[in-house]
Amino acid sequence: MADDAPTPAVAATTRAVLDDEHVIVRGLWRGIDVFRWLALAYAAWSTWERHEQIAHPALAVAVLGVLAGWTLAVTLRPVRTVRAYAIELVIGCSAILATRLVDDPGVITAGAKTIPSIWPTAAVVGFAVLRGWRGGLAAASLVAASSFVEVVEPTPNTVTNSIFGLLLGGCIGYCVDLARTSHEALAEAMRLDAARAERDRLARTVHDGVLQTLAFINRRASDLGGEAARLGAMAGEQERILRTLVSQTDLAEVGRAVSGDADLRGLLRHVERDGVQLVSPADAVLLPRRVADEVVAAVEAALDNVRQHAGDDARAWVLLDDAGDEVAVTIRDSGRGVPSGRLQQAVAQGRLGVSSSILGRLADLGGTATVSSGPAGGTTVEMRIPNQRTGRHPSRHHGRQPERGADRQADARSRGRGAP
Amino acid sequence: MTEQDAMPQQGSSTPPEHIRVVVADDHPMWRDAVARDLADAGFEVLATADDGRSAVARTRATAPDVLVLDLNLPGLSGAEVCAALAAARVSTRVLILSASGDHQDVLDAVKAGALGYLVKSAGREEFLAAVRATAAGEPVFTAGLAGLVLGEFRRVKAEGGGSPERPIPELTDRETEILKYVATGMGYKEIAATLFLSHRTVQNHVQNIFGKLQMHNRVELVRFAMERGLDLTDPT
């Protein structure tokens, strides 16, 4: 938006507005510039055609001269600002009112054209482009008001023209509003994409250096034992946290921006810690935001359960499985090794309360939850959530993938053209 | 993705001193540490490599039992190295070792023929067991990898069976069941007990799952390699 170049303020603003504008808006500006000349020619021709009924031809020529002067000025140096178009609107309205001085009242009441004719419409459209439907309507109202003042007794032409003016200003303004909104959405999506690409680049750098070093320190330090082993464990912990952070294929933001869906992988990342592993596919597991939030709450409840009842050394896995028409989330813990009657014991321990809160959430989503225990101990909670999304998300964003692929291929081509 | 799960207990009948290994890693520190660990444990380290092309060349020249391959080598990706080796009909089995859980890269490498995947933060014993398992031709199947593989089959099914020239077969219900068990941290023994199957049967299922995912067609591998400008002629 900002223009650093030391140009005059008006020119800078103009350029900034032009640079920022949507292609439709730019097209409209060009259209206005062309229309202004055509409207001027039409006004001149209309005046010429009825020159014998004009009371003060010299004044009519003077009015047309002012219009021509402005038209030439804004063609040579287009200024798309509210101020410039306000001036044009004032010129247009004044020219309409000046018709009162040029013509006899009788001629005007008989329905003669105003001197500027359709020329003020350019200003109406200009305001529609600058200020949306409100601007278009306001400018058209001003032009209509001038016309009514000019004729004193409204003719059918005055009414029709005013209605057309209001429709034109309103409709074009509305279209411009829509174009601007979609342009902003696109710009936002591009910004997110760029942010993701940048993070991927950082992730790669971190991966190549920092992670390797931390993992190495951890590995070597555990050989040394004692104090070094404790330091190594710290390095290992940091390595794990950092790896989770940089390997996240966080499509949540982009997904939301595009479809309003949320990626369950991103939403559940926080549950991963020592002893809890999130197992997910390479592609986003998308659910409507509201549904995804409920699922996350249910998973958290299930993991709380594991923490409280499965023993301190129990480990847990959270598996995300997107089978297309339904998403299954399985939470299994390694348990304390209670081989049988675990569920009954769970009921006795009051775990059923938590289970029913999970069951309740899933029932609200139209899904199911089952709790079972394996022969070797450990409890499995399987949640199934129906997914009404029509088809899977087709895109496979893997952030750095395209960029790297392109690099590699270019690289490979430059070296290996001689392959058989 | 963190691989906190211990690898399922797998056979290690081959004595380590008969297992010949090539180590490819662009990080000198890591390359030396891994090679030293392997040598200390009685493996024979034939060569090391620090980029994708030399990994392919040295593996083809020495034909080791196992290539321990860093996923992100300069020059060629892990998947490209695997494809180049498979296309050149090298019988070496590949174990992917990576510092990050870059999901798609791991999946690509496995599809191109890698037999297993381990993050670098895995313990030494786990790593040595994985090299032994790889040498024995057994997939090193961690929960994280199982989740990726399951997701890949789901995706292919939703898209209608893969590309026309390469239809990926669907998993049977039993295979899907076993895959989900592996993906929730169960060992083969535990799965066998749960499903009333023998340990061997579970292993067979796992190998079938891998077989369905991997590119076996030489034409396909060669095209994959050629598209990336890999030289498949004899390295000598």
Task: Please characterize this protein's 3D structure.
The complex is a heterodimer of chains A (420) and B (236). By secondary structure, chain A is of the alpha+beta class. Chain A contains 14 helices and 7 strands. Chain A has helices at 9-20, 23-49, 57-76, 82-102, 105-109, 121-151, 156-224, 226-246, 252-259, 264-267, 289-309, 342-348, 351-364, 401-416, and strands at 261-263, 276-279, 286-288, 316-322, 326-333, 368-373, 379-386. Chain A has a 5-stranded mixed beta sheet, with helices on one face. In chain A, strands 1-3 form a two-stranded antiparallel ribbon. The model of chain A is unreliable at 1-19 and 390-420 (pLDDT under 50). Chain B has 2 domains: 20-140, Response regulator (Rossmann fold, 3-Layer(aba) Sandwich); 145-214, Winged helix-like DNA-binding domain superfamily/Winged helix DNA-binding domain (Arc Repressor Mutant, subunit A), CATH 1.10.10.10. Chain B contains 10 helices and 7 strands. In chain B, the strands form 2 sheets. Chain B has a 5-stranded parallel beta sheet with strand order 2-1-3-4-5, sandwiched between helices. In chain B, helix 4 (103-111) links the parallel strand 4 and strand 5. Classes of the chains: A alpha+beta (420), B alpha/beta (236).
